[in-house]
Amino acid sequence: MKSYKPGHHVGKGTYWDLSNGQRIDVEQEAILSGEASATYFRFPASMMLLAGPIIGLFYVIGLPFIGIATLATLATGTVVSGVLSLVGKSLSFGWRPREAYLSGKKKSKKEPK
Fold it and tell me: What whole-number distance in Å separates Cα of residue 58 and Cα of residue 50?
């Protein structure tokens, strides 16, 4: 697999810039166009046909690991949330912002002797 830069004289084929996914189809001989930093690769059609099932195989193999990672992330988030909730409850100062105590705190009645 040979690499080509913009400005090279190339023959018939399909040329791919893997950095941005740009594809150039050349019907006859032509000069590649594009940015100076681009690098094109020529892939035969048979290689492109084989790439699909191989990429699919990697996806099928990786899918269980993706599921396990998702479950682990959800479980970790639930545990951390529960621990933070317990810590928040234990740091309570006995102050309840919804209660006003405008008439003062209730005083205990002393029984006359």
Answer: 13
Distance CA 73, CA 81 (A): 12
This prediction has a pTM of 0.45
In this structure, the chain runs to a length of 113
Residue 72: count other Cβ atoms within 10 Å of its Cβ.
10
CA distances 105 to 99, 100, 101, 108, 111, Å, are 11, 10, 6, 10, 19
User: CA separation (Å) from 73 to 1, 9, 23, 37?
Assistant: 41, 51, 38, 39
Q: Token pair of 98, please?
A: 């919804």
Q: With pLDDT > 90 as the criterion, what percentage of the chain qualifies? A: 27
